[in-house]
Amino acid sequence: MESQLGIVAVWTQGDWVTKAVALLLLAMSLASWMVIFIKALDIIKYKSLAQRTEEFWHSADFANGVAQLGTQAGNPFVQLAIAGREATAHHRHTQTQLHDTLDISDWISRTLRNSIDDSTARFQSGLAVLASVGSTGPFIGLFGTVWGIYHALMGIGVSGQATLDQVAGPIGESLIMTALGLAVAIPAVLGYNALVRGNKSILTKLNRFAHDLHSYFVTGARVGNNPADGKIVSIKKA
């Protein structure tokens, strides 16, 4: 009798609606875990890249500084530095377009902000999956439970037997769908919150680096750079 209870019984005795709900919850769980795993690896990688920004400011020139930031594809810190360099060169050598009426500080600020916005969008990709799974998972599981209870009661009504052992088994098995919905939703919610915190940490470092780059391209030195202390070497402009 025990072998006929549990998730196996829900699958074998359930109709196509119950099986479809179970497969949907399985797909949602796999999707959320894939997003959590991939995005967690990205956060670890970006945090490692963020630690190289100090090496950038100790470089002899801009090109060497960019090389110190790393050569990984999609490096947001490299993209930020190159965007600032190109914006500075464009403003200084081209004065024929409407946006060139902006002063260099505003123009570089806008360019750096656009680069940060692009990186932010890339950091947040996939989080919508976790948000959707976390918000809809319990309700999908509840739907499976309601449908399973209805299916079980219909079967009991047809058989004409309404004893406790005849009712408790099918209804208890139907409640498993609610538990599965929660099992899918809870990791998605926790993963979403953890990834959001990780992204905020990286964006803080990215914004700090952009602030230093803005000061460097406008004034020629990093904010807080004191040449007398000998700790930070002002890199030459590209």
For the secondary structure, the number of strands is: 0
Number of helices: 8
Radius of gyration: 28 Å
Q: Please write the string of helix (H) and strand (E) elements.
A: HHHHHHHH
Binned strand content: under 5%
Shape: rod-shaped
Mean pLDDT: 80
Q: What is the SS-derived class?
A: mainly alpha
- Distance between termini? 77 Å
Described by its quaternary structure, the protein is single chain
Enumerate the spans where pLDDT stays under 50 for 5 or more consecutive residues. 227-233
Largest sheet: none
Residue share in helix: over 70%
What does the secondary structure layout of this molecule look like, with pairings?
Elements: H1 7-13, H2 16-50, H3 53-57, H4 62-68, H5 76-93, H6 104-124, H7 127-159, H8 164-219
Helix pairs in contact: 2-7, 2-8, 5-6, 5-8, 6-8, 7-8
Structure report:
This protein is an all-alpha fold and 238 residues long. Helix content is 76%, strand content 0%. It has helices spanning 7-13, 16-50, 53-57, 62-68, 76-93, 104-124, 127-159, 164-219. Helix 6 (104-124) runs antiparallel to helix 8. The longest helix has 56 residues, at 164-219. The termini are far apart.
Short description:
With 238 residues, this protein is mainly α. It has helices at 7-13, 16-50, 53-57, 62-68, 76-93, 104-124, 127-159, 164-219. It has 8 helices and no strands.
Give the key terms:
single chain; 238 residues; mainly alpha; 76% helix; 0% strand
